[in-house]
Design brief:
About 75% of the residues lie in helices and about 0% in strands. The longest helix has 28 residues. The protein contains five helices and no strands. The protein is elongated and about 50 Å long. It has one domain. It is mostly helical. α3 packs antiparallel against α4.
Length: about 90
């Protein structure tokens, strides 16, 4: 299943993957990335509900931004290599 998801999300993963070994990687970085990703996805759901009740077209912009950030964080947190997680956090 992981191979199928990796092939499906390869456009996202190629932005963050590299062949270098990350010295500053910690397991807590991956856990924090997954938590932040889930929070952003939850925030996008809240924004969808708000957009539905207000009926404003401009409310779609936060939905797209929060969903995109959450999706990237969860995909890299779940499927990415240690160097990809380090690259998101900016540690080298």
């Amino acid at each position: 299943m992981e191979n199928i998801l990796t092939r499906f999300f390869w456009p996202i993963l190629t932005w963050f993957e590299n062949d270098e070994y990350s010295v500053n990687y910690k397991k807590s970085h991956r856990v924090a990335l997954n938590i932040v990703g889930v929070l952003f996805l939850f925030l996008s759901i809240v924004a969808v509900v708000g957009a539905y009740f207000t009926g404003e077209l401009g409310a779609v912009i936060p939905v797209i931004i929060f969903f995109s950030a959450g999706l990237v964080a969860v995909v890299v947190g779940m499927l990415g290599s240690n160097s990809a997680v380090s690259k998101i956090w900016g540690t080298k």
